[in-house]
Write a structure and sequence with these properties.
Largest sheet: 6 strands, mixed
Shape: elongated
Order of helices and strands: EEHEHEHEHHHHEHEEHHEHEHEHEHEEHH
Structural class: alpha/beta
Strand order of the largest sheet: 7-8-6-9-10-11
Strand content: 15-25%
Distance between the termini: 91 Å
Length: about 450
């Protein structure tokens, strides 16, 4: 070990569940890194716990750049192998994505009995555990196969080097033959999954277009994993969406209708959580789910206010929103979990972010203020109109109650006189019945003609 290395081994008094895999976590400290290695590894430990593994040791190395062969230095790789053997580890997890060759080389050093995986593989494993809908499971399978495909060569080279008999040339040829078979199999699998996803995506698109065609104001909840998006959706809509204190507890988007105090109906959609170093394969595979964000009229960026890392988490989310081209959609930042803060901390947070909202989905604190902000956003583009709707056009009055903000309603001999704020997509339906206050009678006659 060099002066640039650090190793933390859990003491013998730490209790471990008998059936859980034992994991060694590996990180690299690089100059100028946005996330400190200690913080990133603490999150990796939570990810490992979510996947069902228990961390027995954490080790880091300071490097200016990753080693192209083994990611860490060769000496550090040997040290990790020794650490894994001594602690009876089942898996070594690297905090950054490994190239296929780095993974293959590390597997040779660590030994065949210990798996070597990276952060991306761990996240994919968690997604596989938590995907419940058919579309969610297919999205995970697509990402897994896209991750696997470039690693097939390294896997077969590793197997070939351990195969007994036949000579070097024959062993390599056999491995290459099987490699091509496996490549074709994975390519076919990727094509097949994409075909199935396309069918499901078209169904989702029809459902989405139906919502969009209704002109209903659409709100999407986005945020770092475990920020409390599902809890917030439950609080706002009395939904019964799964909500656990776990990373990536829910993956499938859920949409619920919500009636604002003014009477307008909107939709609220919970989406998959983000994380730093989110694998690009997942962003691509979950495109149809993330379309729920890009198609929204308003984004609620939900932040875990109780996390010491909430500023970094906010930036990670903003980077993904930029990546999926959702950064230009109006956004309200919602600092959640205010119940875990002291009164002084809540006041300080509100002072630092005067244009944002501080709430607790758990207790309901601050929810009224959030609903008011959503209401203002929903009505910001509305047109103020006075209309006199003939009684024969009762459906238009129903539309006014469902989609508009009504400030006054009066029943006259000619029809229902309404003062209201009308969403832009409904203006044309109310325009024929528009009247000037004080000239309602003439307007009514004109409308009836």
């Amino acid at each position: 070990m060099t002066e640039h290395d650090s190793v933390s081994v859990f003491g013998p008094d730490t209790s471990f569940t008998g059936g859980a895999e034992r994991a060694v976590l590996v990180g690299v400290e690089r100059p100028g890194a946005h996330w400190p290695a200690e913080t990133s590894l603490a999150e990796l430990e939570r990810l490992a716990d979510t996947a069902g593994a228990q961390t027995v040791a954490v080790t880091t190395q300071k490097l200016d750049a990753p080693n192209p062969r083994t990611f860490v230095g060769t000496g550090k790789a040997e040290e990790i192998a020794s650490l894994a053997r001594d602690l009876g580890a089942d898996v070594v997890i690297f905090d950054d994505e490994l190239t296929p060759s780095q993974q293959a080389n590390l597997e040779k050093i660590v030994g065949r009995d210990v798996k070597v995986i990276d952060r991306t593989a761990l996240i994919l494993d968690i997604f596989a555990l938590h995907a419940t809908s058919r579309e969610g499971r297919l999205q995970v399978r697509l990402a897994q196969n896209q991750y696997l495909y470039p690693r097939l060569r390294g896997m077969w080279a590793h197997l070939a080097s351990n195969r007994m008999g036949g000579g070097v040339g024959s062993r390599f040829g056999e491995g290459e033959s099987q490699l091509e078979v496996d490549r074709r199999m994975v390519r076919k699998r990727i094509t097949s999954i994409k075909r199935e996803l396309k069918k499901l995506s078209s169904v989702r698109s029809l459902q989405r277009e139906s919502r969009y065609g209704s002109g209903m104001f659409k709100v999407a909840l986005a945020g770092y994993t475990n920020a409390g998006k599902s809890s917030l959706l439950n609080r706002l809509t009395d939904a019964d969406v799964l909500s656990y204190d776990k990373l990536f507890a829910t993956l499938d988007s859920t949409t619920r209708r919500f009636e604002l105090p003014e009477g307008r109906h909107i939709t609220l959609t919970d989406t998959v959580g983000f994380i730093q170093k989110l694998p690009t394969t997942l962003v691509e595979a979950f495109k149809s789910t993330l379309d729920e964000i890009t198609g929204a009229d308003l984004i609620l960026h939900v932040v875990d206010a109780s996390s010491d890392e909430h500023e970094r988490q906010m930036q990670a989310v903003e980077e993904v929103l930029d990546q999926i081209k959702a950064h230009e959609i109006p956004c309200i930042t919602v600092f959640n979990k205010a119940d875990l803060l002291t009164e002084e901390a809540r006041a300080a947070l509100a002072a630092r972010h005067p244009h944002d909202v501080v709430v607790s989905a758990q207790t309901g604190w601050g929810i009224d203020a959030l609903v008011k902000r959503i209401e203002l956003a929903a009505s910001s583009a509305d047109a103020a109109m006075d209309v006199l709707v003939p009684y024969a056009k009762g459906k238009l009055v129903s539309l006014a109650h469902e989609r508009c903000r009504i400030t006054s309603e009066e029943h006259t001999a000619e029809g229902t006189l309404l003062s209201l704020f009308v969403p832009s997509d409904c203006v044309s339906q109310f325009e024929p019945y528009r009247v000037e206050r004080g000239g309602a009678q003439g307007g009514a006659v004109a409308a009836q003609r």
